[in-house]
Amino acid sequence: MILKIYRWKRRIVQLATLLLIVLIPAFGLFRIDLTTASFTILNTQIWWSNFSFVFGLTLVAISAPIIIYMTLGTAWCGWACPQNLLSEWANSLTYKWLGKRASVDVGGEGLKVAASKNKPFNWFVLSLAFLAASLVLALIPFLFFFSFTEVWSFFSLGPGEKLSGFMQRLYFFSVFLTFINIAAIRYFMCDYACLYRIGQKMFKTQDALHVNYDSSRSADCTKCNYCATSCITSIQPTEIKMYDSCINCGECIDVCNRLHAKSGENGLLSFEFGDRGDNSTWPEKFSMVFSRFNWLVGGFFLMGAAMMAWGIYSQPQVQAQVPIEIQLKDRESARVCGNQCLRQQSLCKEGSMSECYRAAACKCDCLLQQDATNALNDHWRQCVQQNNAKAEGIDSHGQHAAIGSRTTESISR
Fold first, then answer.
1. Is the residue at 297 inside a domain?
2. Which mean pLDDT values do the consecutive 10-residue runs of the chain (413 residues) have?
3. What is the Cα–Cα distance from 236 to 231, expressed in whole angstroms?
4. CB-based contact 308:56 (threshold 8 Å)
């Protein structure tokens, strides 16, 4: 029995790509800091004003997809794109719980739920699965703007209540958009709203990787529609045109191979570069890829990569930011100490200079109690002693002044 060779390979690549998208910002390899208008690259802060890096990044972002269009065709869509992975998963789950004709594709027949599966429990399980996926996936965009610790602090009860409240609302809005995407949009995004897909139609060539049909054996697939029924994008694999929505997933090749394996023959479909089939060796395949490499576009890509490297190297080092957990801890200590010293602060505002010193001493003493192992403890102890001494000095001076005033008044009498 021939296994689904391309499917399991494709699943590994898709899941690895999704994991990579999560790990890149989580480990600080790339992150965007809106508060300081900078990127974080390999834990190095790169300002948006760094022309060399930003211009190089632009060149790479434009040229890299074009290179993929001209060599691997639509392989990114079928083998790596997270949107396609989610759409496939949502489709398979929908078919399982609502029936094989429950399609949400714009060009399809519509959502035709099987009578035997149109039950509240099936709808509940399907909705719960989509919601669970949305709750997890909606966190990924936040990782590109905040560290993992910061993201966690936004969704936990703590001292940053106002900030957490805003981020929670933004997160739930992201969950809503993700849920709508999984439940209803799916391949509509790929077919009508994806800028990458638009670029494919502009730069894709027949020399790039594509599915080839052996028309010399067309008699072997008379009245057979097995490959078309298995096609993810609902096209006819035996008549793929230049601008069809084929994503090079290989599903049609797998099913055709399995069908013809029963008679001991190879299938009629295969991947090929240009006009050469799938029988070439791996070195020959790599050679064919590079032979179709557009060196003008490749030159822009290499220049962009070099400019990015120079921008990172020439970026002046900046002082490391205080970690968010320390910021939150300091903010909580300030809040506690502010409440603890509220009486002294009120008297200070009324004009009592000694109470102003006592308020300062109270805050230092409170900070000392909040973190007894802090490196600034000696400074806080001195702060307590000095401010209490100043307060007592003012009170003592005030008492002497009051006694002198009463003595003078007695003598005058």
1. no
2. 75 95 89 85 84 94 88 88 94 92 78 89 96 94 86 63 70 94 91 83 76 88 84 88 84 91 87 66 64 79 94 73 63 80 86 87 85 74 87 72 50 48
3. 8
4. yes
Upper half-sphere CA count for residue 201 (Cβ side, 13 Å)? 10
**Other C-beta atoms lying within 10 Å of the C-beta of residue 338:** 14
pLDDT (tens digit per residue) in 57-99: 999 999 999 888 888 888 899 999 999 999 999 999 999 999 9
* Residue 271 in tokens: 């991947």
If asked whether residues 135 and 268 sit together in one domain, one would say: no
The pLDDT, as a whole number, for residue 140 is 93
Domain encompassing residue 274: 206-291
195 shares a domain with 335: no
And the tokens for 311? 């921008």
The last residue of a domain, from among 201, 218, 252: 201
Give the Cα separation of 395 and 392 in Å (integer): 5
**pLDDT given for residue 192 in this prediction:** 84
CA distances from 341 to 282, 284, 351, 364 (A): 74, 77, 16, 10
Could you tell me if 104 and 222 lie in one domain? no
Place of tokens 């100043």: 390
106 and 211 housed in the same domain: no
Q: Write down the pTM of the prediction.
A: 0.71
CA 337/CA 370 separation, integer angstroms: 9
In sign, the C-alpha dihedral spanning 157, 163, 166, 167 is negative
Q: Is 298 exposed, middle or buried (0-12, 13-18, 19+ CB in 10 A)?
A: middle
Task: Say how many C-beta atoms besides its own lie within 10 A of residue 116's C-beta.
Answer: 8
Q: How far apart are the first and last CA of the chain?
A: 122
Q: Cα 373 to the chain's mean position, in Å? A: 37
Three-state DSSP state, 306 = helix
What are 272's strand-pairing partners? 210
Domain count, the chain: 3
Is residue 39 assigned to a domain?
A: no
Are 198 and 150 a contacting pair, CB within 8 Å? no
The pair of three-digit structure tokens given for residue 185, joined into one six-digit string:
């949009």
